[in-house]
Amino acid sequence: MMNLNSPLFDKVRSKPVAEEVRPAVDPICEHPGCKHKGEFRAPKGRDHEGQFHLFCLDHVREYNQSYNYFAGMTDSAVQSYQKDALTGHRPTWAAGVTGGLGPESKLDAATLLRARLERLRKAREAAQREGQRKIIGKMALKALDTLGLDETADRQAIRRRFKELAKRLHPDLNEGDRSREDKLRAIIDAYNYLKSAGLA
Ligand SMILES: [Zn+2]
């Protein structure tokens, strides 16, 4: 076991994170002509994930006010981005968009990002559809199995089999046979499911 009370860990814990990223020399505000200390970080923007400008307080405020991360993006791209950010996809596309861009394609970075967000959105929708199809498929297979059929059964075959079984298992013909009542209920459920899934 590691001793978490060891002085070594105290040292690690108490080390300020900022100390590691702060340059050796105090930076100057990056605003042209400003000579104040650049004490405040401001994100460089969409195509420079993880990069920051350093400004004095006045200029970081000015920068933040004019800074619009989503400038030039369509509403749907913004929504996709926000969804991606929520679901944690952001680093993936950020790396993909910024990676491998030649100098001449820099102007098109926003276009590429929009295209990538669009592809992500479509992929997500397709995955959703695929997921739904599988769930329906699985339950449909189970329902078909209840009717003694398999996935090759078409609409007519399903209806025919249902009528056949319903007639055979009908309480009037079976004088209170519980197991047959249960079976009939299962058959009706299965048939109703297949109908709701558009298969019967
Ligand atoms: Zn400044």
Descriptive terms for the model:
binds zinc ion; 9 helices; mainly alpha; single chain; two-stranded antiparallel ribbon; Helix Hairpins; 200 residues
Account of the 3D structure:
This protein is mainly α. It has three domains: 11-69, no CATH class; 72-127, no CATH class; 147-196, Helix Hairpins (Orthogonal Bundle). Helices cover 60% and strands 4% of the residues. The protein has nine helices and two strands, in the order H-H-E-E-H-H-H-H-H-H-H. The chain has helices at 7-14, 18-21, 57-66, 75-87, 90-98, 109-146, 155-169, 171-174, 178-196; strands at residues 40-43, 52-55. Strands 1-2 form a two-stranded antiparallel ribbon. A hairpin with an 8-residue loop joins strand 1 and strand 2. The protein is rod-shaped, with a radius of gyration of 32 Å. The relative contact order is 0.06. The model is unreliable at 89-107 (pLDDT under 50). Zinc ion is lined by residues 29, 31, 34, 36, 55-56, 58-59.
